[in-house]
Amino acid sequence: MGRHAKQRKRRSLRPVVLSSVLAVGVVGVIAVAGLFSVHVRDPRQRTSADSVAMAASAPAPVPVTGATVDASPSPSAGEETGASEQPGAAAGSADPSAGLSRQIPPFAPPDVKLGVTADAAVNTESVRVGALFTGDIGPGNHFCTASVIDSPGRNLILTAAHCLSGVSSITFVPGYHDGQAPFGSWQVSKVFTADGWQNGNDPDEDFAVLAVAPSNGQRIEDVVGGNPLGINAAWTVQTRLYGYPDGAEKPILCTNVTSREDTFQRRIDGPSFPGGTSGGPFIDAATGQVIGVIGGYQQGGDTDGTSYSAYFDHTVADLVTRAS
Length: 324
Hints:
Layout: E1 51-52, E2 117-119, E3 129-133, E4 142-149, E5 156-159, E6 171-174, E7 186-192, H1 195-198, E8 208-212, H2 220-224, E9 238-243, E10 252-257, E11 259-262, E12 265-269, E13 281-284, E14 290-293, E15 306-310, H3 314-323
Antiparallel strand pairs: 1-7, 2-10, 3-4, 3-6, 4-5, 5-8, 6-7, 7-8, 9-10, 9-13, 11-12, 12-15, 13-14
């Protein structure tokens, strides 16, 4: 993924365009909610502007391309309560607060050399980054990266649209490491992509907003917090880049200065960002805002040393508004 021209920074899942989704369970019938659209301008290769709600109830498969389908029932008022910000739960734990034993270390800007990639330290920023799974949560099973963003509903994560092609029943695990889910696992209930991605896989709209269902009465942002979204950021920005390589069991981090690759494409150079890192956030080192995700041109980059992102402007902002 991302190392050679024929590879991409995600598992080699072939794109599929779905106009409607009907999920039939072996033990029952999964009701599929109505489709609705969201218009968002395309950056370069990783989002679509039509909101696509993915459907299925809790563990049931959740289609992720071309349409928006409700994937879980609406939470009751009693389910929307705050939660602790401490790690320690076992992998796959339904209760993000189970087994919490220590505070998350506060984030402090790392004293690093630009352009060097290393394991990300555990802190309040890195635990908002997590791995996406379609099956059991454990070593070797994650396929892309996502991160929690600040939103009114406190339930949204951000990734690359190309990560979702042909994928169903997605689970997000923030702060995942070594087979462990210290903050629990969170089922994706809806997927929102921009029109340009839905109607032609426009690399300028290669980003996606995913809603996750409450876990044991807790919303994900109440557990790990969320990074603010950065819109219309300058092209030259010192940025922290996170991602989960396919063969790694913890996130990696590289800090470097971004540049403009094309009209709506941001570029950053940083070694060792292979397949699996797609969807990883570009975080502005000065503001803490997410100003991109690995994707866009070449679905994030054909080599491990250079990553791209569709430019974040009103298109992604409108998508977040729609998802909220």
